[in-house]
Amino acid sequence: xxxxxxxxxxxxxxxxxxxxxxxxxxxxxxxxxxxxxxxxxxxxxxxxxxxxxxxxxxxxxxxxxxxxxxxxxxxxxxxxxxx
Length: 83
Fold this sequence. Notes:
The structure is a single chain. By secondary structure, the chain is mainly beta. It has one domain: Folate-binding fold (2-Layer Sandwich). It contains one helix and six strands. The chain is globular. The two termini are 26 Å apart.
């Protein structure tokens, strides 16, 4: 189980959080076509190594955080507010 350090609540178990997606991927512009939005929503990489992710603290402060996690070891290197 992951132990995620929330900037407001402290270190909490993974069950208090919900994964919200890849934080390294940028949303397409409003004028982008259907293919670009389709790729943004459905095409996912399976990276090995450090990865930026969005997590929502649903069992606590209900704030969105961005963290950098190693996908093999699950080590968390950095956690920051979504602001």
